[in-house]
Amino acid sequence: MVALVTQEALVRRRKIKERIIESLLFLAAFSSVLIVASILGILMYESYQFFSNVSIFTFFTDTMWTPLFAEPRYGILPLLCGTMVSSLVGLVIAIPLGLVSAVYLSEFAPARVREIIKPLLELLSGVPTVVYGYFALLIVTPLLQATIMPNLPGFNLLGPGIVIGIMIVPYVSSLSEDAMRSVPNDLREGSYAMGATRFQTAFRVVLPAATSGVTAAFVLGVSRAVGETMVVAIAAGQQPNLTLDPTQPAATITAYIVQVALGDLPHGSIGYQTIFAAGLTLMAITFCFNLLAYSLRKRFREVYS
After folding, report:
1. Which residue, 125, 131, 292, 301, could crosslink 212 as a Cys pair with Cβ 3.0–4.6 Å?
2. What is the pLDDT of residue 162?
3. Which residues in 122-138 are b (16+ Cβ under 10 Å) and which e?
4. Architecture of domain 77-300 in CATH?
5. Tens of pLDDT along 229-287?
6. Do 260 and 274 touch, CB atoms closer than 8 A?
7. pLDDT score recorded for residue 175
């Protein structure tokens, strides 16, 4: 009888512990949702105040962004162009390097070499972005000026774009390599049995089979490039410039937010509210890219049994 009571007490304690653990896990998951909702709520509230004074049509069609001038204009197109140009330059660098690195690590590198190279690649993502910004300003841009572009301005979108590409190589490479290594070895062995070489197997069998993961890595790399702040704030310039030429100086959305956040604009003014409208625009762009990555991954996902 005593043993039965003791067993029931142990079961009851175990259930209480499990409920406590489940509650803590739920709170942890809910807190992330709550934080995102709070950020979105603040952005939408302040942006609503901004758009009460500025037309949304003007915001997305005007070609001048001078909210701090005596005669302000609120066209975000120059900031959008600067953001997209720097991101495209970064992707031109990151996608080929990241994909080739992933193929090598997944299909060609010995296990010992992989264990050394992959952590070293991932270390790049741990370097502070301020360091990358000064690297772009003091090393990459002068190097471009000394070699192939002597007339390149000191502030430009090309140098920061190249450095952004270097920054996001670890993201593209690591995620793509994980996707390729998840492809079953049966596909590789079947390819070898048909007489295919290692190179042909990597690019014609393994890579197509990992399309969903590789595509998601590319899109997430785009999101990372679009949201980069300090590199472009330091090395791209602070003057909004409507241009698609990467050799010209320009400002991005994130660089403008940094510029205004360091100023002395009064709280509640239209100039102060512009950073929330710009931030909401950037968040919408990033959300669209993440949604695209999810849909592509779901559409092209291969299920192996």
Report:
1. 301
2. 93
3. eeeeeeebeebbebbbe
4. Orthogonal Bundle (1.10)
5. 888 888 888 888 888 888 899 888 888 888 887 766 777 778 888 888 998 998 888 88
6. yes
7. 87
DSSP collapsed to 3 states, the chain: CHHHHHHHHHHHHHHHHHHHHHHHHHHHHHHHHHHHHHHHHHHHHHHHHHHCCCCHHHHHHCCCECCCCCCCCECCHHHHHHHHHHHHHHHHHHHHHHHHHHHHHHHHCCHHHHHHHHHHHHHHHHCCHHHHHHHHHHHHHHHHHHHCCCCCCCCCCHHHHHHHHHHHHHHHHHHHHHHHHCCCHHHHHHHHHCCCCHHHHHHHHHHHHCHHHHHHHHHHHHHHHHCCCHHHHHHCCCCCCCCCCCCCCCCCHHHHHHHHHCCCCCCCCHHHHHHHHHHHHHHHHHHHHHHHHHHHHHHHCCCCC
Instruction: Count Cβ atoms below 10 Å from residue 264 Cβ, excluding itself.
Output: 4
Residues 164/82, Cβ–Cβ less than 8 Å: no
* Residue found under tokens 């660098």: 93
CA distances from 163 to 78, 96, 133, 228, 285 (A): 21, 14, 8, 11, 21
Tokens (6 digits) for 130: 């301020």
